[in-house]
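Q: Given only this backbone (182 positions), what sequence would you predict?
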């Protein structure tokens, strides 16, 4: 039975390293994982005043799609030593209304990257902190890719050594999902 994985990228730029990395990871996933990037750029900033009988359509579509998913893969850049605002907003939108969070119990993995040497370490940990508060069983294997601007041979093809590491991430994630599926 296929495992439905939603992939959320923390960058809106079409040619961003995070987006390229997300697609590379999808391509390296074991066959039981069916992964899809779900766009988050159209989500209105979370505002409880909009949480009415008819919340924004983009919120509803996002929540419905994530609710159906078996797991979530977060691929985040580091912006000013944290995750991007668009990714934090997606986490917030999915966590509401109170008592109806789409996150609770949903297995996840976090992969961060940066052109810098520490590979988005701070963004990775800030995101993990939010996910822990929401009851998301997050894969303990930490994945930081420093020097991301030098890790692609082609648009979505990682250099061999990084491809090997990314394959291990995705294999570990598949096992994590199977052990932590609700």
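A: Predicted residues:
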């Amino acid at each position: 039975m296929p495992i439905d994985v939603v992939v959320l990228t923390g960058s809106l730029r079409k040619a961003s390293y995070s987006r390229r990395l997300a697609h590379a990871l999808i391509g390296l996933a074991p066959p039981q994982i069916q992964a899809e990037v779900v766009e988050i750029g159209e989500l209105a900033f979370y505002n409880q005043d909009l949480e009415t009988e008819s919340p924004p359509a983009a919120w509803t579509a996002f929540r419905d799609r994530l609710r159906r998913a078996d797991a979530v893969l977060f691929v985040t850049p580091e912006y000013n030593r944290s995750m991007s605002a668009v990714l934090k907003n997606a986490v917030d939108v999915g966590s509401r209304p109170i008592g109806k969070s789409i996150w609770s119990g949903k297995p996840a993995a976090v992969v961060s990257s940066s052109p810098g040497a520490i590979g988005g370490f701070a963004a990775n940990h800030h995101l993990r902190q939010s996910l822990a508060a929401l009851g998301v069983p997050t894969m303990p294997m930490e994945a930081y890719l420093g020097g991301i601007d030098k890790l692609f041979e082609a648009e979505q093809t990682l250099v061999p050594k990084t491809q090997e590491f990314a394959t291990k991430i995705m294999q570990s994630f598949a096992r994590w999902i199977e052990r932590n599926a609700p």
